[in-house]
Amino acid sequence: MRRLYLAPFGLHTATELVFKAALDTGAEPHEICYVTPSPRKLRDAQLRFIRLFGRRAFIPPTFTTPGMLSRNLHRRFGATRLFPSELGPLLVRSLLASHRPKPTIGYCAALAGFVNDVKLHFAADHASLVARLKKGLEGYDNPLARALEAAQVLQRYNELLHARGWADEPDIMLSAAVHVSSRLEPIRVLILDSFAAPNRPEQTLLAALINRAQTVLAMGYGDSTDSPDYALAARFTEFVASQSGFETVQLAAQPQPPTPLFACHSQEDEVLTICRHIRGNLWPEVSDTVLTFPRLNDYSPLIRRIFPQFGIPFTIYPETRLAASAPIVAVLELLRSVSSDFTRLATAAALSSPFLARLLQLDDSDGDFLRYSSAVNNYSKRAGIIKGRRNWQHLGQRLAAAEGLRPADSEATFVAGLEERIRSALKLAYGAFRSVDTLGSGARKLKELLGRIAFGAPAREQKPLRMLAPEQQQLYDLLDALVAFERDFGAIPADTAELQRVVARLASDSLVSNNPDPDGILVVPMTETLGLCPKHLLFGGLAENALPGRYSADPILPDRVRTALGMPDMSWHRDWQRFHLRRNLESASGTTFLTFPTSADGAPILPTPYLDLKPVPPPRTETLFSAREIQIAEGRRRRIQLPETEQPVEFATDREVQQVLAQRFGPDREIPVTALEAYRRCPFRFYLEHVLGLSTPDEPRFDVDARQWGLVAHRLLEKLYAGGAVPLERLKESAVQALDSTLDELNLPQFWQQVIRGVFANLLPGLVACERSLRKEGYTPQCIESRVRGEVAEGLRVKGRMDRLDSGPGGLRVLDYKTGSTAAVTVKAVLEDRTHVQLPLYARLIQSRGRIDNIGVYSLREPSII
């Protein structure tokens, strides 16, 4: 008997129906082989069969997916090794190397994608493929040349895999069909459940299973209409119809009432709304509840943060890229560090990672790891390290030069210990990769290094390889595959930088499937619910930017050619989205709860056009389900505004604090004018920086920073006019001499000295023009870098260093050198808005010396006087 059941989306007992039909044949459970495309559906079917069969003891049926079955048969009967799909781009690159110098890994990945697509969806031979490509791209020379190159790569790819004894996933599934026909025992009852659009190797395997079975019961999706929602599922129906002897049974389902679509303000508000619905309407029976999104990765961080606030248990099954997992990020940063001469950020990230704690030879039982790991980033930034192994090895010396750290200080002792640990870590990392010349040798040395530092192991515990987390084990598998690849396909020249790029690419192409034991609400992507019929379905993220989702165009073949070759195209992508959307909407046997966000990053968002529903506000409830909501409600009840919740520190009654503040800022103390300027800009920042002494060092940059350039400029001009006004005809020569003397004193690296000389050479004509203008008005420098102090108001004494004071016929002019932007220093800002107080205060402090003619800014950025 061969029977195809077509179930509409709203039929929630389809799996039980096909199980009953199988048992009605008289078959024992162990004589049933159940095949479904989804791992989630596989587990669901096992539970449903146990509930259906009752508590009698039995040998269970065989439950499998096509992928699981093909790999199992390959392990039992196959004579080849499984070729990891992640290595496809590397094999393509080795094939292209003979005629295309240094092909990019991105282009090779595109060609590897072409190879995989053809093997999954095109059944004809190579000659037919070439003929179809020539016909489809006739008149388009460049696309045709690229497609023919891809076809040639495909042919050589298959030949090389066969010659070296490897087989990729499509080949293994095709060989599994042969094993089913020749080696597998006949199947009493075969069940094919919840298939929609199997690819060519899957169809070949399913056809072999059908031919090996006495009874075949297939459950597909379909209804009595020609609804486009079932267009994707029709591909499975057509495949089954191509097998002889099948009768079709159309099943029916009761129509479901329309479900409202709730509009939430944001994604976070959407998750909060879902949590309130769970606690208010589904709690506590949530074990048969599914939460799904078209793009789960956008919501998984919010779910992990908000669900625990409401006490809702959940199990999330997101498929993530290997490169995004924390342990692998640490390894990639380590490789980037070594390949880039230990750039600061990459090196600090690697040394401070808990997965590489043994690099610093740390034991975190006494908190050393947290102390040293946080110090790596802090001290390297304060020391101004940009890159360079020698700079890291002299961290303490650089820090002492930057901040005046004395050897006797306790902090200096800690830095010395940190420096020794960093020296050992960099020596180990640098030595590990010093002789890397191929990808295989680099992969081998990386694995050896990770083993030496107990990659991922907690403190004082050598974690055995078999106990590694899945992503760590997967990384080791990739490295082993690189070594095996080099052994079979030849060495690929590579330094550490190339090794880092390749490992990063392979990790980006590798998916990590997290499979914890289910607990609470099941959270999965939209496509992972295939075949599931939960009691309650929560469907979020139903926005226009998710459905329809973005279609990624093929860089090798135009869409019309993909259509002609039977490959997935834009129409397939649209059918795929409609199928999964409609299937989910009608999958729940109980309730369905739909939501979407109306905005993201301030931009409005509409609901998906695939839904003909008018959005409504989510239902309001007075019930409070979390501590967060209770706190907000309590504040509203007591009418407490946010400022009232602040608890400012009161120093008025603290005599010790008052004494310290009086010593530093009292009436007898002189406050620097620049500090007063900082207080005017932001009193709180003044408090942090000048009272508490806190500061955030700028990220070191590979250039002369503003502070250093300002120091050079001020010292140069001080030396230039140390003996008074310089005749204009000698100004250039004297300025160059002053620059030479300044650079000698500052002891800057030779490279930066050359940069500063070049910048100064460009500025010098403008500086001469400014001096000529001043001399023309009769003004010459009277004093340079002059210290001034005095009382500007009762109880307020200030001090400062005046850059320059010129004298002339009209009196005195106060000038302040600026190497940065002068846009904020305007006449209006000084006289009307009073947002710039530095120059007026200087004028007030020296008014006893004579009449003040004017004040101004001497810009050294684009020489001019403002």
From TrEMBL:
Q: Does the keyword tRNA-binding apply?
A: no
* Start and end residues of each PD-(D/E)XK endonuclease-like domain: 673-849
Tell me, which GO biological process terms does this entry list? DNA recombination; DNA repair
Q: What is this protein called?
A: PD-(D/E)XK nuclease family protein
Gene source species: candidate division WOR-3 bacterium
| Superkingdom, taxonomy of origin | Bacteria
Which residue ranges run through the membrane? none
This entry's Gene Ontology molecular function terms read: ATP binding; DNA binding; exonuclease activity; helicase activity
Record keywords, A-Z: ATP-binding, DNA damage, DNA repair, DNA-binding, Exonuclease, Helicase, Hydrolase, Nuclease, Nucleotide-binding
Xref: InterPro entries: P-loop_NTPase, PDDEXK-like_dom_sf, PDDEXK_AddAB-type
Please provide an example of a Pfam family that matches this protein in its UniProt record.
PDDEXK_1
